[in-house]
From TrEMBL:
GO cellular component terms, A-Z: cytoplasm
Protein name as it appears in the record: Uncharacterized protein
PROSITE patterns: RCC1_3
Spans annotated as Disordered: 379-405
InterPro entries attached to this UniProt entry: Ran_GTPase-activating, RCC1/BLIP-II, Reg_chr_condens
Taxonomic source organism: Cognatilysobacter lacus
Lineage of the organism: Bacteria, Pseudomonadati, Pseudomonadota, Gammaproteobacteria, Lysobacterales
MF annotations from Gene Ontology: guanyl-nucleotide exchange factor activity
SUPFAM superfamilies found in the cross-reference section: RCC1/BLIP-II (SSF50985)
Length: 405
């Protein structure tokens, strides 16, 4: 992986951007064009999806609520604008809310209840922690974690934010504050697997938290017994990104060369190792070391319960693991090693719902596959599932303001 600098202009403010370019080359064969992945421009909840268009506006579709109660974000089951404003650079589909980062790193939040209540118009978000600028976000089970621009690592409970916002009067700032983890260590990426946080530090090391309890004081004070230290997970490489999510038993990570590492349950082959063996040291109650997985070089991956998706360094799209509802976008089989979904397009982003996937092409088109019971594939509700990638029905181009024209 190589890094390059560029400059973009949003809302009249010039900001310096860093984009990841991944190189793929096998000796004796011509190198394919590099793919530049777009992190944070598409995000998936259990049954809904949010994405940034080329103006940085937040669109969404699917069911963003209690699985037992229909809470459609879009009555047409097609993308619609969910939040006021433009120029957002990152968007996260949360359990009860949508979070977005603007070009300055400021954090904005819109409650899903407010979005449901205004199906015909975008919802006005409110700013969180205005004295902090953020680089990366992750959310799971109502816990939000963030890496600030200075590399510090924080987390907070979204229900505390929602409660404080409902109690406030006027435009006063809410009292909830994020809680720090491992002060003095600089981080570059973070994700949450249920109540367990995983983060990559600037030296390429991976760290995991104990369970983060959602029961704390609304004023952000320290929890009884709260630990500020994290457990180090050994790896044989310098890591750059980590991927995990609620109810997914596998944790995957990419190193600086695009190699895939991971640990966790492997019942359906979701680790992509070609078998169904649990990857952890014999006799260990928890994994203490990441293990190398696929030999292929990757640009990005996504995880979900029982399956994983990935974009190879050449921009092709792959999947492995469970495929009962065509979660992998292939018609037949449940491959325990990466299987090609599509090599005709240049793919730049991929996310997984609980029953399928959504991926973005370099020219701003979204495609979805798998289960569609809640309209999460954005096809207007024409099918209960798609066996292969099918277009999301919209005239909007996606990819965020930093996407190449």
């Amino acid at each position: 992986m190589r890094w390059g600098w560029g400059v973009a202009v949003a809302a009249g403010v010039a900001v310096t951007l860093m984009v990841a370019t991944h190189h793929s080359h096998v000796a004796g064969t011509p190198a394919k064009p590099d793919v530049t992945v777009l992190d944070g421009v598409v995000s998936a909840g259990a049954a809904y999806v949010v994405a940034l268009d080329r103006e940085g506006r937040v669109y969404g579709w699917g069911d963003g609520g209690d699985p037992n109660v229909a809470r459609k974000l879009s009555r047409s089951d097609r993308p619609r604008q969910l939040m006021d404003g433009a120029g957002y650079r990152t968007v996260i589909a949360g359990h009860d809310s949508v979070h977005a980062l603007d070009a300055s790193g400021r954090l904005w939040r819109a409650d899903l209840k407010s979005i449901w209540a205004s199906p015909g118009a975008p919802t006005a978000p409110f700013a969180l922690f205005p004295d902090r600028a953020w680089r990366r976000l992750g959310e799971s089970s109502g816990i939000v974690a963030g890496v600030a621009r200075d590399g510090s690592l924080w987390y907070w409970f979204d229900r505390d934010v929602a409660s404080a916002f409902e109690r406030r009067t006027g435009a006063e700032t809410i009292a909830v504050q994020p809680r720090p983890l491992m002060r003095g260590t600089r981080f570059v990426d973070v994700c949450l697997r249920g109540v367990y946080l995983h983060a990559v530090d600037e030296d390429g090391g991976l760290w995991r938290s104990d369970a983060l309890s959602p029961y704390g004081a609304d004023d952000g004070s320290a929890l009884q017994g709260e630990r500020s230290e994290l457990q180090h997970i050994d790896a044989s490489a310098r890591l750059e990104h980590v991927y995990c999510r609620e109810n997914a038993s596998q944790v995957l990570a990419l190193d600086s060369t695009g190699r895939l590492h991971g640990y966790g349950m492997n019942t359906f082959g979701e680790l992509g190792t070609g078998d169904a063996e649990y990857r952890r040291p014999p006799g260990a109650p928890q994994a203490t070391r990441l293990q190398p997985l696929s030999d292929k070089r990757w640009a990005a991956v996504a995880v979900a319960p029982g399956f994983s998706l990935g974009i190879a360094a050449d921009g092709s799209l792959w999947g492995w693991g469970r495929n009962n509802d065509h979660e992998l976008g292939i018609r037949h089989g449940e491959p325990k090693a990466p299987a090609l979904i599509d090599g005709a397009h240049q793919w730049v982003s991929v996310v997984a719902t609980y029953g399928g996937g959504i991926a973005l092409t370099a020219d701003g088109k979204l495609f979805g596959w798998g289960a569609n019971a809640s309209g999460e594939l954005g096809d207007g509700g024409v099918a209960s599932r798609h066996e292969e990638p099918a277009p999301v029905l919209t005239h909007t181009q996606f990819g965020g303001p930093d996407a190449h024209p």
